[in-house]
Specification:
Two copies of one chain form a homodimer.
Chain A (H helix, E strand, L loop, with lengths): L6 H15 L4 H15 L8 H15 L7 H23 L4 H11 L13 H13 L4 H13 L3 E4 L5 H9 L7 E5 L10 H6 L8 E3 L14 H9 L2 E5 H8 L6 E6 L3 H7 L6 E5 L11
Parallel strand pairs in A: 1-2, 1-4, 2-3, 4-5
Antiparallel strand pairs in A: 5-6
Amino acid sequence: MKTSLECFPCFIHQTLNALDMLNAEPQVREKVVREVLRYASQIDLLLPPPATGRVIHTLIQRECQTTDPYREAKERFNRLALSLYPDLVRKVKNSPYPLETAVRLAIAGNIIDFGIHTRLTMSQVHQSIQDALESPLDPAGFRLLDQAAQEADQILYLGDNAGEIVFDRLLIETLPREKITFVVKGSPIINDALREDAEFIGLTDRVPVIDNGANAPGTILELCSEEFVRRFQQADLIIAKGQGNFETLSDVPKRIFFLLKAKCPVVAKHIGCKINSMLLLDSSFLKGEKNCL
Amino acid sequence: MKTSLECFPCFIHQTLNALDMLNAEPQVREKVVREVLRYASQIDLLLPPPATGRVIHTLIQRECQTTDPYREAKERFNRLALSLYPDLVRKVKNSPYPLETAVRLAIAGNIIDFGIHTRLTMSQVHQSIQDALESPLDPAGFRLLDQAAQEADQILYLGDNAGEIVFDRLLIETLPREKITFVVKGSPIINDALREDAEFIGLTDRVPVIDNGANAPGTILELCSEEFVRRFQQADLIIAKGQGNFETLSDVPKRIFFLLKAKCPVVAKHIGCKINSMLLLDSSFLKGEKNCL
């Protein structure tokens, strides 16, 4: 997905939000905003928006002299999501079609995105869960994912954010998990999950966890490690969580199931759905029909 | 009032809105947005936000090869406001304190601001009128303005937008109008009123109308004509309409009554009121107490 001119106000908003969260000094705020504006004036619109997000957040990390500004927030949401876990497991187990419920909950977890919601509350997380369980649904998407997972030999599950990965663990435990490798980011970017998050929430005990060697809030193959790209090409099914993975992989010729909330108007417009829609998109149908929850 | 870093996303939004309204070609849109980003990266934050608004809209006019992109919109709102005029006159005449009602209506008219509302509807204008008439009020402000107007020898009334000036005419007819000179902008900027608008709505028949020689969406004295600056300095009372005039004149040591709606979060935060508040601010009290409707 290309960058839209409508992304630019949001790049600046994201910059200001991150600087607020870090309580950056006024002169640092001004320096960063000016650099972001200058950088944004020159970007290649053919690149996906997370390519710019990566540069912006790397710049903020450098100027605020911090390597992982969202570490504390990530830990908080890992703990909060873990506290919900037993109840979520029950919901899945008691469901007539556990995979469907687990997919819905995995999408619900995608609300924990500090690129969009810097002041997310637990009540918003609960609301997202409720919405995901109650949304009208097209059952075809779940059956297609189910079938693809049964037929696949190697499944690569591209994670998104800390906290959210607890919801991913739930889905992984519902899928044939012996085929699954979970992927985290190579180094800190916003609140995207890292290996330590996967370890903390017990995901490393369930499936192999690798990192993609990059620090983009999405999966930009050109920036990923050779090892990751090899695994990506070998896998016969990719499950990709979140808006960033959709923005960076929607044009890649590969069978990918995207699970996300369309949290920004540009992505929603690109997909052709309402903002905040919960989506299960099969890349086989992306140029034609869409399978939206 | 200085430029805040929070103004930057809005500068880009305003640019995109203006380009949308002009149905600009994609390559023109991209060129303008890139130029605005580059320009914004270098601006002096000590300047008021309308200084940047002026540059942005001048750039858009140049790149879209149009000198007055809002001409049609201005004429439409002049006509619409004129159609309301007889009813507004009745409201003022039937009021126990006509000046108060006329001030409230003049503030209501400030909603016709295409820098903020590019898709304004008549129902929003009606709602603004209703809100202005019903807002709880501090009567002190009206009495202070009334007294200042009685005592003044020369009153300069700085207009804001086309359409809105019909509401200004109403207030002018309630004040000692023989003392008043009305001021329009020197050349087109957004939907700010020009001499032709003042003529069209019959204001030139009521009071002398001069222009300020500039094309900023506010009053930046350094950019105005010598003649206007002389008149500004001579006047013993200034009535300044709208956010742009507040942003550009709030630090000028002069008795000014600002009548505006605080339509953006940065201005509202600066003043210390809720967004969309209707305000009558006496500059004498600006550093201390505020007189908000």
